[in-house]
Amino acid sequence: MMYVHTRNLYYREQGLDVTVISFQARTGYVYEGISVLSLREYEACPGEYGALVLHAANIKHHYRFLRKYGARFPGFVFFYHGHEALNVTRAYPRPYPYMKRIALKTLAQEAYDGIKLAIWRNYLPGAAEKSHFVFVSGWMYREFLKWTRLSPNVTAGRYSVIYNCVGKEFEEGCYDAEGEKQYDFITVRSSLDGSKYCIDLVNQLAFHNPSLRFAVIGRGRFFEFNKKAPNLEWKNQTMSHGEMIPLLQKARFALMPTRTDAQGLMMCEMAAFGMPVITSDIPVCHEVFDRVENVYFISNEDGKRDMGDFVRLGSRCVKDRRLGREQTVMREVELLKKL
C-alpha cells in the first residue's frame, strides 16, 4: 500500500526506525531504505519494537498476529481508512447492474462483515488501554462506532482524526489557471466500476452539457455497458502523480463527485495543487472541504445541472495548504514518539 510506504519514508526522515512485516512476502527485502520482513522471518527473529502500527487491520492477518504476538509490543496504533471498519454491503452504495454480485457472494460478504465486526467489538475494549486509534476523518470515526457498536468510552482520550497526507507533487506544485485548456472538467479515478465514484453522474452531466468538454481518466468496464457522451473523452488507464499533473493543467475544473468516501484523498490532492474542485453535497465532503475557498458542491441527484455556471465563474488557483506533511504525517510522528 503506497500510502503506508510514503508514511514510513517520512517517519524514517524524522528519526524513527521502521520495520514492515508483510503478510504476502515470502522473503524479506529492503525497499527504498525500509526493511520488510516476511512473517516467518519475524517469527524466527522477533526483535524489540516500541509500537505496533496497523493500517486497515483485517482479521485474516492482523487479528491473528495480535492474538499471537501482541503481548510483545508495548503499544498499538490502529489506522482506520475505510472498509475494514464497515459493513461493506450496507455502507457502500448499490453497485452498478453489471457489477452486481450473485446472491451467494453477497451473503458471504454480509456474513464476513458480521464476523469481522463482532471480533473487533470483542477484542478492542481489552486492548484499548495500550492502543491509540487514528481515523482519516471524523466521518470515519463515526462510522467505526456505528458498525462496531463500541461505546465511545473505548476510544475516549485514545483517538485522533488525522487526514491522509497529499502527495508531494501536489503539495509543492501549482495549478496554472491561465494556461491553455483542452477540457472544461476532468475526473480521475483508479476504477470506474465502483458506483461510489459516480461515473454515471459525470456521464449524465456531459450528456446534458453538450457544448462543454469532459475528460475521464481511469480503468473499468463502465462504458462497455453504458453509452458514453460524445463530448466526454475517456482514457482507459491509471496514472502516477507525475503523469496526472500535465492533464490536470489542461482542465478548468476537477469534477469529483462521490457517494461514499472516508476522506477523498484525490480531491484533497487536487485542492492542494490549487485546482478548483467540484464534489458532492454529502457530509464527509462538507467536513473536509467546507472551509476551502476553491471547492464547490453539487447534488448527486442533479444530473441535468447546467455546468456552464462553473465555466462562466472561471477557474483560479487557490492552494489548500491544510494537508501537507507538517499538518498530517508530522502529527503521526509526534504521536509515535510519545508512545
What would your notes on this structure say?
- The protein folds into two domains: 2-165 and 327-338, Rossmann fold, CATH 3.40.50; 168-313, Rossmann fold (3-Layer(aba) Sandwich).
- It is 37% helix and 18% strand.
- The protein is an alpha/beta fold.
- The strands form three sheets. It has a six-stranded parallel sheet with strand order 10-9-8-11-12-13. Strands 4-5-6-7 form a four-stranded parallel sheet, covered by helices on one side.
- The model has no long low-confidence stretch (mean pLDDT 94).
- Strand 6 (131-135), helix 6 and strand 7 form a beta-alpha-beta unit.
Pick out its properties.
four-stranded parallel sheet, 37% helix, 18% strand, six-stranded parallel sheet, 2 domains, globular, Rossmann fold, single chain, alpha/beta, 339 residues
User: Please, what is the oligomeric state?
Assistant: single chain
> Which series of helices and strands comes N to C?
HEEEHEHEHHEHEHEHEHEHEHEHEHH
Mean pLDDT metric: 94
End-to-end Cα distance: 24 Å
DSSP summary: helix tally: 14
> Largest sheet at a glance?
6 strands, parallel
Overall tally of structural domains: 2
CATH class of the largest domain: Alpha Beta
Runs in which pLDDT lies below 50 for 5 or more consecutive residues are none
State the helical fraction. 25-40%
The beta-strand count equals 13
CATH superfamily of the largest domain: Glycogen Phosphorylase B
Structural topology:
Blueprint lengths: L1 H12 L5 E4 L6 E3 L2 E5 H6 L7 E4 L3 H11 L6 E5 L7 H4 L11 H25 L3 E5 L2 H11 L10 E3 L6 H5 L10 E9 L7 H9 L6 E6 L2 H4 L6 E4 L5 H8 L2 E5 L9 H9 L3 E4 L2 H7 L5 E4 L9 H6 L15 H10 L1
